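Listing 4. Sequential folding, example run.
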Amino acid sequence: MAGKTLELAKYTWPISRMGELIENLARRSGMISRPVRLPQPPESLFHASDLAIGSWMDNAAGYLELEVEPISIQYAEFHLLVQAASPAILKVPDEFSNGTSSYLAMVRSSRQKAYFLCPDLRVRPIRADLLQSIICQPFEAQLIGLINQVLEEVQAPESGRKRAQAAILRDQLGPLRLEVGWILRIPPSAKLHHLFRHTGVYRPIALLLGMYFVQQMLSIASWYVIGRGIFQGHFDLGWLFAWAILLLSTIPVQIIVSNAQSELSMSVGSLFKQRLIQGTLKLDPEEVRSQGMGQFLNRVMESEAVEMLALSGGFTALLSFIELALAFGVLSRGAGGAASVVGLSVWLLLTLVWLWRYYRASYDWTTAYREMTNRLVEEMVGHRTRLIQENPAYWHSDEDQELDRYLKLSENLDRIGVQISTLVSRGWILVGMSTIALAYISGSPPPQALAIGLGGVLLASQGLSKLAGGVQSLANLMNAWQQVGPLFKAAARPRPLPALGFAPPAAGEPYQPVAASRDQTLSSTRQPLIQAHDIFFRYRPQGRPVLQGCSFEIHPGDRILLEGPSGGGKSTLAGVLTGLRAPESGSLLLWGFDRQILGVEEWRKRVVMAPQFQENYVFSETFAFNLLMGRRWPPLPEDLQEAEAICRELGLGELLERMPSGFQQILGESGWQLSHGERSRLYIARTLLQKADLIVLDESFGALDPENLQRALQCVLSRAPTVLVIAHP
C-alpha cells in the first residue's frame, strides 16, 4: 500500500490546485485554446463534501465555456470508464491521499492504459487494472480479506487466484454504484464549429463527400471503358477486365459512404437532441406560460422532423451538387458542347423556381396544419370545460372552413410536388437530347462525343432528381425550424455563473432550533437567510407594479405565513424569492450574497418552491422519479429511504402500499391516477426532498382535509429548515 501511495504522489493534484487542474486538463484535451486563469478554490472548500466540490468545479468549468458532469457508474462497468470517460477528474480515495482531497486528471485512455496529466504538466500512464484497484479500494477492501481466506481454504492454485478474486468481486460488487469523479466536456450550447470539431463530426463529412466523389468518378470511368469497347467494334479482354474491376470497386466505396452517413447521422442527431434539451431548460418561464399543449406537441413533432429532414434532405442536396458539377464537365466534352451546358444552366434555374413555389405552398400547408393540431389538442384538453361552459351550437364552428382550406392547400402542394418529380428530370432529358440533336443538325460530331453527351444528360438527370428531392426536404425543414429554432437558439444563452472566490454555506443542513427565550437575543446576531430591500417588480415595462417598496428579512428557522387576497402579489413575491423572476430594482440577498455572486443555479437550489396546484405537474414516470426529480438521479438507497419516510409522515404510506410496484409505479395520464390531495402531498414531498435552505409552499394545503392537513403541517415544520407558507385568509 505504501508503494502505491508513493507512486501516486507524482500523479495526484491537491484540491488547492483544482482551478489549475481544470484549466490545464481542458487545454491538453483540446477543449480550449486561449489561456484563462482560473482562481483556486477557497479554503472552506478543502474539507467540503463531494457535492459542494463538484458544484464549484462545474462553475469553474463554466468560465471556460465547458461543463462538468458527475460520473456515476456500476462496479461491473468500471472498464467502460477507463475506455471512454476522458477527459475526466477522478477522486483518489482517502487511503491514498494522506488526509487531504486529491485528484487524478485523465487526459485520454485505451483498453489497457489510462494517461494522466500530472502536476508537473507531464502525461504519464497507469495500467487499467491498477487504476481500478486504486479507485475501488474502499469498496473492495471489505471483501478481499474474506475472499483470500476462502481461496486458501479451498486450496486454489496460485496461478488462478488473481482471476478468481476479480471474478468474485465482480459478482459481489457488480451492481454497486460508484461516484468516482467528474467528466469534463463541451456543453451542447457551445458553437457548432467547436462541437463538431471536438466530437469528430467533420471526419465523416469529409469521408462522405470524398468517397461519393470517388464513386461517381468510378462510374464515369466504367462508362468510358464500356463505351470505348463498343465504338471500337470489339471487346478487348483487357478493357473488359478493367470494366469489371471498376464496377466491383464501387461496392466497397458505397459501403464506406453508407457507414460515413450512418456515423454522421448518429453524431449530429445526438448533438441536436442534447442542444434542444438544454435550450428547453434555458427558456424563461414567462416564455412558455402563455403556450398551450397543442403548441408544445407541435414542437415535439417538429423536432423529430427537423432531425430526419436535415440528415436526409441535407445529404441528398449536398451530394446532388457533386453529380451536377460532374455533369457540367461531361456535357462540355460531349456532342452538345456549350449548348448542353447552357441548357442545363437554364433548366437548373427553372428547377429552383419550381422548388421556391413548393416552399411557399409547403409553408402555407404547414401553418394550417399547426393551427388545426393546436386547436384540436386544446379542445381535447379542455373537453370537460367546454361541455359545461360552451354553447353546443358553437362546438364545431369554423371546422368545415378550416378543413376545406386545409384540403385545398394539400391539393396545391401535391400538384406542385408531382410537377417537380415528373418535369425536372424528364423535362431535362428532352432539353438535353434537343441540344445533342442540334449539334447533329449543325454538324457531324464523332460517335464518342455522342456517347459522352448521352452520359452527361443521364448524369445531370440523376443530379436534378436528387436536388429536387433534397430541396423539398430542406423546404419542409425550414418550415419545421420555425417551431424548433427558438429552442435551438435558447441553448446559446449565456449561463449566469457565480463568483469563484468563495464557497457558500452548505445547502440542506438541518436546522438546529434554539430555545424560545433566546430567539429574540439571537435574531439580532445571526446571519439573515433572506434580505430584501425596496423590491420593485412589474411584468411589463409600462405595466402596473405588482411589488413596490417591498422590504423584509427571513432568518434561519423562521416559520412565516403570508396571507392576502387573490391578485395581491403573493405568488409573484414567491417567484422573486426563488429566482424565477428578477426584480426591476431593489436588492435581494441570500446569505448576504446577491444573484450575480451566488449564481441563478445555486440560488434556485437553495430556495425551492412548490407552485400552485395548476402550475405543478405529475410526470408520466415512476413515483420515485416524481419525488426525487429535483434531487439527483439515479437515486441512492438513502434517497429512497428518506423519500419513504417523508411520504409516510405526509400520510402517503397507504398509497405506497396500494400501488402494485411501490416506488416504481408509473404515474400520469396512462398510469396510476392520484387524487387532488395525493398530488398536493406529492408536491410537498418533492419540495422537502430537495433539502433547500428555504421552502416556499404556495397554497399547497388548500386541497387537504383537516387530518391530512395536520399531518402535512407537522411534517413540513419538522423537516423544513425555514418555511414560507402562502395561503388565502
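-- end of first protein; second protein begins --
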Amino acid sequence: MATSDPELAEALRAADDRWLAALLEHRSDLGRPVPSSVTALAARAGTRASAGRALAALDARDLTTLEALVVLCDDGRPTTLAALSGGLGIDAAAAVARLRDRALVVGEDGAIKPAPGVAEAVGPTPLGLGPRLRALEIRGYEGWPTTAPALRTLLGAAPEGARTLLDALTWGPPVGTLGTEVPPAARWLLDHHVLHRLSATEVVLPREVALAARGNRLARDVPQQPPVAEAADRRPEVVAAEVVAASDEILRHLGLLLDSWTEDPPATLRAGGLAARDVKQLATTLGVAVERAALVAELAGMLGLVGHAHIDDGPRWAPTPAAEDWRARPPEERWAELADAWLRSARVPWLAGTRNDRGALRSALSPDLHRSWAAPLRRRALTAVAAWPHHAGPSSEQVRRYLAWTSPRSVPPAATLTAVLAEAETVGLLGAGALGEPARALLTGGDRAAVAASLRALYPAAVSEMIVQGDLTGVVPGRPSEELARLLEACADVDSRGAALTVRFTTSSVGRALEAGWSDSELLARLQQASRAPLPQPLEYMVRDVARRHRRVRVQPAATVIQVDDEAAALALLSDPRLAALGLRTVGPTALAADATPLTVHDALRSTGAAPVLESSDGKPLQLPSGRARASRPAELEGPPHEGPVAAAEAVAAMRAGERRAAALLAGTETMSTPGEELALLRAAAARGSQVRIVVAGGGGTSQERLVRPLSVEAGRVRALDAAREAEITVATHRIVSVRPA
C-alpha cells in the first residue's frame, strides 16, 4: 500500500494542464478510469503497481538513474542532483527531468527523492546491491569494512579465491549459493565480516561493503545510447524483391485456404480452434510446413475472413461474407490490411502445436492463443529493427540486445522474439531481415492507403509473356500480370517461385482448364498469345489429346432436377418469367434441369404458388444443405477490444473540477452528496495533512465518531492517525458512515 505523499500531490496540483496531459500519455494506466481529482491521481501514481508499469517502459539510462536514487534515499531522506550525478559518474540532470515528467521523482535539484511506490517497484536489490547491515539485523558495524580503504587493507591478507568470490557479488546479484561444504575463501569472507550468512546455503554481500568494493561508484556504467552494432547490409533491390515475394505468397496462401474451406470446411473443436489433423491437411494443400499453415489460419482469423458455420454435423470453420469482398480488392490493399491486422493482433500463432502447463495441446484459432503483450511486442520488435540503417538486417540477438536497452524490465525471451521476427518476414514486413518500406510506412502511422501505395511502388513491371519450352514447362521472367496469372492458375502447376515463375503443363492441369469451360482451341490460342515463340508441338499434342478424351463423356451442370406430372406443367414452368433466374431447361418430356441449388429452386417455386416437394434421388423427402459453407460472422479471437489512448485534455479538466470540489468539501463550504465525494475528501485530507471527523459503524448497530488525520486511501481501506488515541488505525471504507471537515 502506498502512503500518500503531500509533495507528489502538491507537485501535480501545481503542474499546468499540458504537463498533466503529457503525464497521462506517458502513463496511460493513470487515466483509466479518470481519477476524481488531481489528489486521486497522485494517490494512484504512488501505488507500487502503477510505478511498476512505468518502470517497465524506462530505458536503461533512466532506470539506472532511478535505481541509484532509490539507493541514495533508502533512509527516507532526499539527496541532491550533484550527489546522484557523482555516484553515477555522469550528469544525471536530463534523466531526472524525464523521470519527473513521469511523476517518478519529486523535489527540486537540491532535495530530490523517488516518488511513492517507486522503491517497492524497483525491488530489494537496486543496481544489484543487497540489503543494508541494519536490514540484516546486524548490531553495530564494528569490524565491517564499509569504506574502500578498509576493504583494500583487509583483502591484502585474503586467501586465494576470496577476491574472485567478492568480485562476483560486487556488481550483483548480491546473493550467492554455497554447497554442503563452505569453501575456504567463503569461510574467510564470512569470518572477516565481508559476507553475511542468510541460511545454510546462502550468503549475501551487504550494501555498505558492496559500495566500498565498487569504490563508492553506484553503477559500473550508464549506457547513454542503445547498442546498434554493425549488421548485414542488404541491397535495396533484394529487400524490395523479398518483400514483394513474401506478400504475394501469403496472399496466395490465404486465397487457397478460403477456397479449401469453402468446399470442405474443417470441424471446430469443442474448446474452439482447429484440430491438428486439419492443420496438417491445410499444410498439404498449401505445400508448406505445419507451422506455416497454422500461421496462415491465424492470419485468416485476424482478418475476420473465417468464422463458425453451423452445419448439421456441428460447427465448422468456413469463410465469412467479408472474404469475398476482401478477395475482390487489389493485392496491395489486401496486404496493407493484413499487415495492419498482424501488427495490432494479440494472437501468438507460434504457440500453436505446443502444450500448455497442464499438458494440453494448443490449437490454431483457439481462444488460448491470446496474449495481451503480443501486439506491443510486435511493434517494439519492428521499431528496434528500424533503428538500424536502411536495408540493414540485424540478427535476432542484436534486436534483443537493443530491446534490453530500451526496456530492461521487459526483455522478451529469445525464442519469442525469433518467432515474431520470423512471422514479420513471412508476412512481408521484413525482407532478407531488413525492414521493408511498407513496414516503415506502417510504423510511422501511415494509413492503409499509404501502406498499400508503398507496397505498390515496389512492384516490378508486370510481365505478360512467358517462355514455353519443349519439356512442357513455362518460365515467366518476372512478376506475371493478373491476366497471365489467371491463365497459368487455370491450366498449369507451379514448379518454383522466385525471381522467375516456373510452371509445368500436365494432363491433369490441362484437364482442369477444360473442366472449367475452356475449349482446346481457346486454350491453345490464349497460350500462344502469351508465348514469345510458337508453342512447342508436344504441348499442342497434349492439349488436343486431353480434349479428345475429355469429350468422350460429357457432363453438363445441373444443380437441381425438377420432375412434373405432364408436359404442360413443364412448359408452364419454362415460360414463367419469375423463374428465369433459375436457368431452367428440358432434359426430358416431364423433367427440367436448373442451375440453382435445390433449396433455391424450392423457394422460387413456392413463390409462384406451386407446392413443391423436396426429395432425395430415391424419392424420399429431404432437406438439403446449401452446398457452400459460409460463416455468418468472424470468430471472436482477439479477446477484449484494445483500449484506445486516454482523452488527456478532457481527463485533466475533470480532475481539476474534482480537485476544486474536494477543496470546497474540506473547507466545509459545500456539502457532500455521494459516497465518492467522501473518499475524495479523505484523499484531499491525506494529501494536505488535514484532520477530518469520521463516523465508523461498529458491531451491534453502534457507531462512534473519531477525529483522524488520513494517511492513505487505497484498496478499500483508510489508514489514519487517531488524534485522541495517538495511534494509527485502519478502517474499511464500507464501515465509514460519514465524513466531515474537522
